[in-house]
Amino acid sequence: MTDATLAALPPSPWVELWRDFRRNRGALIGLGIVAVLLLAALLADVIAPHPPAEQFREATLRAPSWEPVDGRRFVLGTDPVGRDVLSRLIHGTRLSLLIGLVSVGLSLSGGVLLGLVAGFFRGGIEFTIMRLMDIMLALPSLLLAVAVVAILGPGLMNAMYAIAIVMLPHFVRLTRAAVIGELAKDYVAASRIAGASTPRLMFDTVLPNCAAPLIVQATLGFSTAILDAAALGFLGLGAQPPTPEWGSMLASALEFIQSAWWVVTLPGLAILVAVLAFNLMGDGLRDALDPKLKR
Amino acid sequence: MALLDVQDLTVEFGPEASPFKAVDGVSFAVDAGEVVGIVGESGSGKSVTALALMGLVDAPGRVRASRLAFDGRDVLAMRERERRAMLGRDIAMIFQDPMSSLNPCFTVEHQLAETLRIHEGGSRRALRARALELLRAVEIPDAERRLEAYPHQLSGGMSQRVMVAMAIACNPRLLIADEPTTALDVTIQAQMLALLLKLQRERGMGMVLITHDLGVVAEVARRVMVMYAGQVVETAPVPDIFAAPHHPYTEALLAALPEHNIGRRRLRSMPGVVPGALDRPSGCLLAPRCAYAQPRCVAQRPALDGVEGAQVRCFFPLRSRAVETTR
What is the pLDDT of residues B197-247, one digit of tens each? Predict the structure, then answer.
């Protein structure tokens, strides 16, 4: 050690975050599953055994089995029109993650903007924004999503908009609360004295300090988005067939729940696992990022 | 001409009809290279005065003054952009709590460089060199490595030094230090004061030192302003005010110093607290707590008046004599 003259500087924040995150086994499992889902989504074209929309008319509703039939193997069985369930699930991962990414992205950016404005400009503007958010929170979230889709028209993109709108109040409130807490601190006054303009204060000085709760909420928001998208798909308001979206897969196979368990159970399980993974990861991130929960 | 000239500064909160005056008609001036102390207990309006000077009192607070001039320029009439350019470059401020006055998200270098960049600009290299120079000026050991440190990796004293470095970054002509030593250990306090004083002398800065510690003022300031409940109750040059306080409040503050209580079992203290918004007396604000209060003090409010080279807000100012040890 050549530079051990003074006590070594503590590790970088990233190392510290990883150290705290690693302590939580559930979070690690969540992270692992999320990584697998991510890989599946990226490599869907390569790893899926069949194209997701190809119908094998001679092999409808085949039960899951490792044995190949006519040289084709349907590991997780086929659906009522003979499409390979495994391939559809793998391609569905792509959609689910996309839905999570887009709706959380939209919701987060809109929520942060509104929350910053509400936190910085107390009074009339804040009141208007926050009461509007209260109204949105007063409506059941799925009902609100359904209403939004009813206005915009069914479809995957509109479902994502609807989910983004439903999640918006959470991000706005979180941002505003964090901003108000940070604004009371001297470093904000110091920055103002140093000549920083209001936009600079908002985005450069205060926002990075509000990041921790937002990261956690965004991760948890992923699972909400996936779940809501599946619900909308199930109701026929989200992704339209033949898109291999988990919720619409579930809906289209509902009548076979008695005779062919796999067409309903497997998409359901996929939703469950994905949501659980994001929730576990979100909880782990919260434990690692929240100073109040640190030992 | 005075560097900073404040006349009749008032900061009000609450309803327009019956406002609470956190700062009530405060006037003072600071010359270049002069150190002025503002002393008072909690709630006396010291910090609000400082914030008002820096234009940091937000709505619903209202700042008024018949004159607020820096270097002959009227700060109140300045446009927002002009004032922002002046703040930080010509007037800088140091806060009480070093732990919350640095942005926890950025390294020391980033924060120092930001202040420099806003007012002076320069290449990354040059900014880094300047930042390093500043850290050395505030006597931070191992300055190179501290550049990369985040605020939570610094001790309180170290953070306060970084704050001072940020404040003097653009060679301000006036430094407002709001209780710069209050949050620090006693051992560090002396170092901090010595550092501030050294920087102030080297750079010929005017300095407003806000504190509740008369000992600090005695060491550093040339003139002291004692505040009580938002008003200036006494202004006097430094050696005199310690030898011969004219206002009963100043006397009581001095009497509470441990040095004046040697041999006693308990420190002498002043009963009661500073009046708030709802219990403001109609006469002299100190009357309910004053040992010398007369009927006139309860009925009328005294004005600042010259007494033996000092300005005193009292109907019955104490005449020259040493601080009494018994009362």
Answer: 999 999 999 999 998 888 888 888 888 999 988 889 889 888 888 888 888
User: How are beta strands B206-211 and B174-178 bridged, if at all?
Assistant: parallel
| Encoded tokens for A202 | 């908002």
Asked if A187's CB is within 8 angstroms of B104's CB, the reply is: yes
What is the three-state SS of chain B?
Answer: CCCEEEEEEEEEECCCCCCEEEEEEEEEEECCCCEEEEECCCCCCHHHHHHHHCCCCCCCCEEECCEEEECCEECCCCCHHHHHHHECCCEEEECCCCCCCCCCCCCHHHHHHHHHHHHCCCCHHHHHHHHHHHHHHCCCCCHHHHHCCCHHHCCHHHHHHHHHHHHCCCCCCEEEEECCCCCCCHHHHHHHHHHHHHHHHHHCCEEEEEECCHHHHHHHCCEEEEEECCEEEEEEEHHHHHHCCCCHHHHHHHHCCHHHHCCCCCCCCCCCCCCCCCCCCCCCCCHHHCCCCCHHHHHCCCCCEEECCEEECCCCCCCCCCCCCCC
CA distance A209 to chain B (A): 6
Contact B95 A197 (CB under 8 A): no
**A·B CB contacts under 8 A:** 72
What whole-number distance in Å separates Cα of residue A171 and Cα of residue A225?
14
- Which of B51, B97, B103 is opposite residue A191, by nearest beta carbon? B103
> What pLDDT, in 10s, does the model give residues A189-198?
888 887 778 8
Quick check: B98 and B183 in contact, CB under 8 A? yes
Q: Which of A186, A198, A201, A207 to mutate to test the interface with B (most CBs of B within 10 A)?
A: A186
Which chain A residue lies closest to B56 (C-alpha atoms)?
A189
Q: Are B276 and B261 in contact (CB under 8 A)?
A: no
User: Closest approach of chain B CAs to the CA of A77, in angstroms?
Assistant: 52
Q: What is the value of pTM for the model shown?
A: 0.81
Summarised one tens digit per residue, pLDDT across range A58-78 is 888 888 888 887 778 888 888
Q: Average of pLDDT values for A79-96?
A: 90
Q: Which of B101, B119, B149 sits opposite A195 (nearest CB)?
A: B119
**What are the chain A neighbours of B93 within 8 Å (beta carbons)?**
189-190, 193
